[in-house]
Amino acid sequence: MITKRIIPCLDVRDGRVVKGVNFKDLNDVNSPVELAKFYSDNGADELVFYDITASSDGRKIFTEILRETAKNVFIPLTVGGGISSVKDFERVLSCGADKVSINTGAIKNPKLIPEAAKLYGSQCVVISADVKRVNGRFNVFARGGRDDTGIEAIGWIKNCVDNGAGEVVLNSIDTDGVKQGFDIEMLKAVCEVVNVPVIASGGAGRIEDFITLFKTLPKVDAGLAASIFHFGEVKIQDLKLKMKSENIPVRL
Amino acid sequence: MIAIINYGVGNLFSLSSSFNAINQNVEIISNPDALKNFDRIILPGVGAFGDAAEKLFSSGMAEPLIAEAENGKPILGICVGMQLLFTKSYEFGEHDGLNLIPGSVRAIKEVIPENLKIPQIGWNALHMCCSTPSSIFKYTSEGEYVYFVHSYSAFCDEKFVTSTTNYGADLVASVQHKNIYGVQFHPEKSGNSGLKILRAFCEV
Questions:
Q1: Do B189 and A74 touch (CB under 8 A)?
Q2: Catalytic residues of A
Q3: Which of B14, B37, B70, B109 shows its CA 20 to 30 Å from the CA of A72?
Q4: What is the CA radius of gyration of chain B?
């Protein structure tokens, strides 16, 4: 039986993991290479590297870091941030990324998803949507959640999947950082319209939030989180043991 | 020394890194004449079967690969590389494979329940077929998890099937026919479980 995936997300700027981390077993907690290896050895099913670099120099460093990580980590690696063209796909795939997640790039250039899917296959193209409630409906936000595009999110996500996106990361801006649980209502709306894997993001604060997620929405395939893993508030092994005890399929 | 065949399909970085991680010398090979100089051959592959088959045949790699296979050299096909080992695929039409193992490649939707997502993406357990134990699982236990990404699967005589995985139905996870090995999953993306399989292949 296929298992539910647990995915830590690492925000990387100028070659360092930002938001700070707190692991006593690591010599350099801000090294993406070290942290990725730590997660890989401690039960993560997949990793997301998010490039929040603004400069082209930083982007070069990110690509180098990615290559170094991929040399040492043998679980699926998804890369996002600053992906706006097929060239960007090529840049990160050649350094060892397995999947590429796009957000603002897909809003600006609707051809990017079909082009990338044709070149690299749908399994490689992940649509990452930042979504927030605006006047009673779900809107897509661009530029890291700063700009309301005015686009209705659920139809837009379905359209991205119809055009070749092979997975959806749904990040609820409403629940992100609040640590009171995933956005079940928003996730449900997306699960009803797509038949590709859906990865829940935004809102996890404790182990029970993942249990509620997978129990309430069996169509959700994975849970993604950042700071609760980085700060050791939730240990992936503990989370997975709890999932197993709740009969949620999991890789231990 | 291991050759990874480069015929313009897929990303070979992780694959070569994973052999480096188990201290095996590996070279990415684009020249068909060079294949004979290696002890073992890896046939990778992603994407659609038709595209991959066309590139493999037009690259000139297919002929020496078949010759080396017939010489008894260990060959491991991965994902679409495994599917290429078979006689035919029915992905978007009908395409010829290398015919090193009799069988065909067909859509998993033909056999799995309708409510399951396609492709199968994620970690699933390997179930060993005891009647045909494979030496590439020398270090692998029943039920170990490996990473799958596929919409198509091999269908062949069960004497070639060395393990299955359950995704609403039992799907072929690995095959072996003499010195020809194939895995539907990605050992280079399956953590330690995957590295153990690659190590065992280096010892067959």
A1: yes
A2: 11, 130
A3: B37
A4: 15
